[in-house]
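Subject: Sanity check before I submit

Could someone independently write out the structure tokens for this chain? I want to compare against mine line by line before I put it in a report. The sequence has 266 residues.
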Amino acid sequence: MIVDQPRRPFEGMATWIWDPGAWEQRGAPLLARARELGIRRLFVGLRIIDGAICDPHKLDRFVHEARAAGIFVDAVEGDPQMVDRHGLRIAVRRAQAIRAFQNNTSQDGRLGGVQFDIEPYVGPGWRGDARAFSRWGQAVAVLADAVDEAVDLVVPFWLLDGSADPAARNMLLRVARCVRVFTVMLYRSDTAELHRLTAIWAAWGGEMGIPMRFALELSHSQPAEISFRGDRIRLSLAAHSISRSEFRPSAGWAVHAALPEEVTLE
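---
Independent answer below. Compare away.
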């Protein structure tokens, strides 16, 4: 398939800014670089202490400035320990702080939503059995209740792989009621494999009536099988080829490590 090279490598895509210091200290250059690359949504980490967002006025201003630049801003929260009792208590307090910000800030300063990137399978003690998936799903439901809105949930592609435990699919079915969009980490760089994976997830999302966002990896620190390793053009061409198929992501694309370190401070 011949696909036209996109005008900007990440046109209409999203990316993550986990370090709150990036948008707090270098908000203007960060937004300028994001706009230059075509990024239209940022998932940003927040500084929360003692159950409250630090300097909510600064966050309000940043969201305002991003909106003026045509960029949406969502909060991102994530820790494998969110599925444990103690970790979940901490996560709920943070989620309630975000909810308070949403309820008390200006309309134009409100975050677009909250994304949870829990990934319990990278934490210690992960067993991958029905109980582990059940705790994952329960944590998502509790956190969605704490922010008082349906959430954006990050999940790995293998949850719907043919070899996945049936408990994985059951967990997805259970959390569907409190998820507004699934962000699926399709961290592979082979275009044929990406077409296969997007077909699986797009079909499932269509059945469930839930939008799908597909995420790709650009980091140099990951192996070539997983990441495009800084090759923005090859990544964008792969994404655009899928976007022209029947299995295009209904909620668009996200790219990990899309912005250079000098603006993200990561």
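---
OP: Matches mine. For the report I'm noting this point. The chain has a mean pLDDT of 94.
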